[in-house]
Write the C-alpha cells for this entry.
Amino acid sequence: MADNTQVIKVGKYEVTLLRDVCIGAATCVAMAPDTFELDENNIAVMNEETSDLPDTILMAAQACPVKAIIVKDIETGEQLWPA
Ligand code: SF4
C-alpha cells in the first residue's frame, strides 16, 4: 500500500520504510533513534529531519528482522539493502 510506505532522503541514501511489513520490533529505534520511532500502533515511522548518519541508518536497516527498511544509493541507484 503506497499509503503505508514512507520514503526519506538522508545524505547519499534514499530510505524506504515498508510500514505494512514492520512488526514493531524496535531494533531500528535502538540503533538510529533520531530517525526511527514507533507510532501509537507500534509501527515504525521515520523523522525526515534526522541527524543520524546515513551509514547508521543502513546498519539499522540491516538489523531489522523483517527487512522492512530498504536503502538505496541515490547517485548510483543501487539498492544496498536488502542486498
Ligand atoms: S526494526 Fe523493522 S520491524 Fe522493528 S520497528 Fe524497525 S522497521 Fe519495524
Remarks:
- Residues 22-28, 36, 44, 64, 66, 68-69 surround iron/sulfur cluster (CB under 6 Å).
- The first strand starts at residue 5 and ends at 10.
